Amino acid sequence: MAEKVLLGIDIGTASSKGVLVSPDGRILARASRQHETSYPHPGWVEHDAESVWWADFLALARELVPAADGREIAGLGVSGIGPVLLPADADGKPLRPAILYGVDTRATEEIAELTEEFGADEILRRGGSALSSQAVGPKIRWLAKHEPEVYQRTEMLLMCSSYLVHRLTGRYVLDHHSASQCDPLYDLQSRTWSQDWAQRVAPGLALPELAWPTEVVGRVSAQAAAETGLPEGLPVTAGTVDAWAEATSVGVRQPGDVMLMYGTTMFFVQVLDEVRPHPALWGTCGAFPGTYTLAAGMATSGAVTQWLRNLVDGEFADLVEQAAKVPAGSRGLLMLPYFAGERTPIFDPDARGMLAGLALEHGSAELYRAALEGIGFGVRHNLEAMGEAGGTAARLVAVGGGTQGGLWTQIVSDITGQEQQVPGETIGAAYGDALLAGVGTDTAVDPDGWNPVARTVRPNPEHTERYEAYFRHYRDLYDSTVRIAHFLAGEQRAADERG
């Protein structure tokens, strides 16, 4: 009998990754592809499903399948950015570019409209989350209002993972976790679609069948096998949103576990033993049957450091080395990292970045450290909101590209006063996809032991004490400047309209 392996592929905001993994978690091959994200208007963030999602999937599958080298690929798991809205026709063909997750803020009016229509308290009670730019429901209504010709042709509401599953198997299915971010269409208590509200938000549209990310929902068709190089009949699990696949990859499965994902944006997933709605966070289903999570997400993180890198025309390694020499507090600089609005816990698409305390003696090193500290203060703000909801952060697990180098994670531990565990493998969601496929096909060996901790980041007590005052002023800075930020955000939109 041939040795078995598992395949996981994830489509991210700026890149896609795939891994071929043994049943005990050893990575046998890996591949990645970079891609572009479209920003056609202020507040609009989109991907073309064919040229980004499917093209990346094809490239990764065609590279990784030969690496199996005679071993049997026992299962395929997929994930992608989400929640997103991809309207498609009856054949699953996209009708417009996909509207991305909370970084796309076009549906501000529809958020207010639906909140008024259904009631903020009832929305939170049913779905576990207040409506925000993260929710899919307001974007569906935006589509119906602003692109009615597209809406009238729409037969399927797809996300990144469900689009891939449909292309591979022909099934129109969505995992429970992704569905729970389709507020206000999903009832978190009963774990079913809220059909009464769905018909008012998405009239005439059939919603997908629901499944858990670990469930095998179909098999690779002959046509998909010919396109991708995958074996015909290969079991495919339901897939999910990338952050939840990544949390799975690092063992964030028990109540009190929290994943901090350091990437283009900062994302948090905390496992709960019961539904704990909080108006400043997202309450969702977890990746495993019967589980729940609290989630949070900052609109920018790595995106701010990339902006700074481009601004000063420097290299990341040099900027990190220089910033590490700057004392805690960046010599009196304080940054609000709201360069694309902010998601949790303030839900303000018109928030804007601020830099307080700037003086002539400050240079690129101070600016870079202030950016990392500003993101760190945002992390603490979100963790405190999770604590208010009753979700105690017993264990923090750090993942993502931002864990490399050590400075960013150290600053976050110093600001929060909490340890962070960094696992041995931080490749991300694709690794979790392979694990979910392994669970779904009964192939994975000891899922809890796949990815042991490689190092622990411990806070520096002196820095933690120093950051206390900075954090208080961080909180005050937003409140003190919000009217200015909103005015400037309006000016930016007006400038774009004028061309």
Provide a descriptive summary of the structure in words.
- The mean pLDDT is 95.
- α13 packs across α14 (407-416).
- The strands form nine sheets. Strands 3-2-1-5-15 form a five-stranded mixed sheet, sandwiched between helices. A five-stranded mixed sheet has the order 18-19-17-16-22. Strands 4-7 form a two-stranded antiparallel sheet.
- Helices cover 38% and strands 21% of the residues.
- It contains 16 helices and 24 strands.
- The protein is globular.
- The longest helix has 38 residues, at 461-498.
- By secondary structure, it is an alpha+beta fold.
Based on the model shown, name its key terms.
499 residues; alpha+beta; five-stranded mixed β-sheet; globular
Write a brief structural summary.
By secondary structure, the protein is an alpha+beta fold. It is built from 16 helices and 24 strands.
Furnish the topology, listing elements before pairings.
Elements: E1 4-11, E2 15-21, E3 27-34, E4 46-47, H1 49-64, E5 72-80, E6 86-88, E7 98-99, H2 108-118, H3 120-127, H4 137-146, H5 148-153, E8 156-158, H6 160-169, E9 173-175, H7 176-179, E10 186-187, E11 192-193, H8 195-201, E12 209-211, E13 216-219, H9 222-228, E14 235-237, E15 240-241, H10 242-249, E16 257-262, E17 266-272, E18 282-285, E19 292-297, H11 302-312, H12 316-324, E20 334-336, E21 354-356, H13 364-388, E22 395-399, H14 407-416, E23 420-423, H15 429-440, E24 453-457, H16 461-498
Parallel strand pairs: 1-5, 5-15, 9-12, 16-22
Antiparallel strand pairs: 1-2, 2-3, 4-7, 6-8, 10-11, 13-14, 16-17, 17-19, 18-19, 20-21, 23-24
